[in-house]
Amino acid sequence: MPPSPHGPPPHGRPARRPGRVPDQRSGPGPRPPDRDRLAPPPDSTDEHPAEPPDPPSRARTAHPWIAPIALATLLGSLVAVLALTFRGDDFHTAPGALSLRYAIAWTLFAAAAWTVRRLGARQAAVFVLVGGAAIAATGLLAPPRTSTDAYRYAWDGRVQAAGISPYDYAPEDPALASLRDRWLFPKGPACHGPDRAPVRPAPERPKAEHPEGEHPEGEHPQARRPTPERTAPGSAKPGRPIPGGPALGGAHPRADPAPDHAHSAPDSAEPQCTRLNRPSVHTIYPPAAEGYFLLVHRSAPSGSTLLPLQTGGALLSVATTAVLLAAARRRRDPRLATARAALWAWCPAVPVEAVNNAHVDALGVLLTVAGLIAVPHRRALGGALLGAATAAKLLPAVALPGALSGVLARATKPGAPRTTARRTTAHRTVLEKFRATGPGRPAPAESPPPPPPREGAGSPAPAASRIRRAAAVVLPRAAVLRPATSVSRPTVSVNRPTASAIRPATSFIRPAASAVLPVAAAAAVVALGYLPYVLLSRSSVLGYLTGYVAEEGYETGSAAADDKNRYALLRLLHPGPETWALPVVAAVLLAVVGWVLLRGDPQRPWRGALVVTGTAFLLMTPGYPWYALLVVALVALDGRWEWLGVPLAGVAQYVTARAVDDGAWVGTLGYAVACAAVMAGWAVRALRAPRAASASRPTRPPAETAGTAKTTRTAGTAETTEAADAATPGSPPGSPATGPRRRRARR
């Protein structure tokens, strides 16, 4: 071996060849490509490209057992605090102590959500799922503590099981007196507890028959309507059937043998009350919710009270966690997406509102999350799921604009649907050819024929596909809206049929139809859900909806807006918003929806849904914290944790305000802090965006390195041939599809 021209190497150090850098990343064998091992696959459709993966922390590499132990301790403490919270009924007696326990639970939740980010994706998924199930189970330890809506759910299920439409009668109607159970309609000393509303006792039924059209004094005009008890199945004159008897699940009411489920005697002289809220009005819940109530009633064992509804809420919350974890596997950074699922699974609002209070909002949240995840890939299915969520609880309708994110953006916008890098490159090539051969321009010199395709590189695109691509770029933009006969500019493709001149119109119509497909599917599902109840009910299927809007203070000029502290943030700008708040709220929401339609990311519709939903909460400041379960689920999808201040503000207005005199300022302060947190989070992300974008740009390897690039200069241009860093998806290693790519290099 000849001596090195650079002299002998130093003692103890190996010789180095000039022009080569030793590879310290691997041993003998071929050098791995210079791609990032954490980079996502080419078809991944989430996480902003300007957000690089988090580097591994020292705690996760040096002491991998510290984070799991700390996380298990935090989750155990959270479960213990929630169990103590549910075992004590402090909502009416000590709301201040209940608020303190809520604050401790939310603090433990925040610490656990921060700690889970230090785990790997698989380990975090196990903690999220198991911890979410344990936290949800704490809501089963006691009956509902802060809401009585579940009693109305049980009543609606019982009424439907008897073959009666829930939209036809109010709970205190004497026509439904035979369905009253002792646990829903207590008597005597049991009526002295909180959340009891007096009801009219059923009048004593006279023995003698009255002529048709005449009714005993005090009897409801529809009390003589045939019911399963009054008309035997085989009677000769059954009368008019009960609306919805066969369709709503049966013809006989369910009789529970337990002593506390005995039906109330109509001739009892004891005072009677009910646990149902608003017993004098019809139900307000949409058809999917009513179907859920009937399903739970049919599935529950005899003698059960509210435990089946609470169990259903626990199953729905765990199912939402499972959907979030399944979607995290397709995200750009599965570890970070898995950690974000904990924002729903461990949030204290979930066991309180979805499980213990058994609110049907959990069903709407599950369907909304599944619909938003499905929209980028299957728009019809996603729209149908969003429609089902709206039919379960009307609130998820505000998340529907998120499914239309970016539909008003230009088709060439990066990340827009039906736009790929390969198609953009083809369009640019065809456009350059057209500019070179247009009218009044000299024909270029004859170029050599293109080389035949390499083996394994894939078959060339079909002729029809090439024609459509060329037409979409070559024809002017106005040709999309004008008749085909007005197109006079030359085209590039040879032997193209005449009918292809109108092909660009389909490129405009198809994306438009695809954009409105989720809305159409959602509207169809809602209409189909209401249709059976419309056909089988005598009363309006809207029930008490319009009255509820006025009662909650959302009607123009309503006096309840001041009492319930609605429009709390707008009230800070100008007093008395009852007369002008609705137009302002509508204008702001329309502006936000327009921004989502124009600037939203179609691959992340949950971000637009979170912006619209959160803005609606900040403007209308509802006083019920279970409404904000939808916000919690959207935060778990998007990761913008600053929006969690919205459910905290609802808790402050609903629980903490009871502990102080004139507690309206508590809810106002809570929503003001939540709005400030959202604005601060937006400002911080806006400042970090340019830095993250510059950090995520890939560095170009030097063209002078041997074996990596070869430069050939031509007349006025420099073309660089570089080895491709990544193979074509689906191509085996070493195939021609992984060969060098040609691209222009800057001089």
Number of DSSP-assigned strands: 5
Compute the CA-based radius of gyration: 33 Å
Residues in β-strands, percent: under 5%
Largest sheet: 3 strands, antiparallel
Compute the number of helices. 22
Backbone structural class: mainly alpha
End-to-end Cα distance = 41 Å
Main sheet: which strands, in order across? 3-4-5
Shape: globular
- Give, in order, the helices and strands: HHHHHEEHHHHHHHHHHHHHHHHHEEE
Mean pLDDT score: 74
- Low-confidence segments, given as residue ranges, are 12-52, 54-61, 206-260, 411-424, 453-460, 470-506, 703-747
Q: Considering DSSP H and I runs of 4 or more, what fraction of the residues is helical?
A: 40-55%
What do you see in this structure?
The protein is mostly helical and 747 residues long. The chain has 22 helices and five strands. Strands 3-4-5 form a three-stranded antiparallel beta sheet, with no helix packed on it. It has a two-stranded antiparallel ribbon with strand order 1-2. The C terminus is likely disordered.
Which descriptors apply to this entry?
globular, mainly alpha, 747 residues, single chain
Question: Nutshell version of this structure?
Answer:
By secondary structure, the protein is mainly α.
Reconstruct the topology from this structure.
Blueprint (H helix, E strand, L loop, with lengths): L57 H5 L3 H22 L7 H21 L5 H17 L11 H13 L35 E2 L74 E2 L12 H13 L7 H22 L5 H12 L3 H8 L4 H14 L4 H14 L28 H16 L26 H12 L28 H34 L8 H7 L8 H4 L4 H6 L7 H19 L5 H16 L8 H10 L6 H10 L9 H32 L13 E5 L4 E5 L18 E4 L3
Antiparallel strand pairs: 1-2, 3-4, 4-5
Helix pairs in contact: 2-3, 2-4, 4-7, 4-8, 5-6, 6-11, 7-8, 7-9, 7-10, 8-20, 10-11, 10-20, 11-14, 12-13, 18-19, 19-20, 21-22
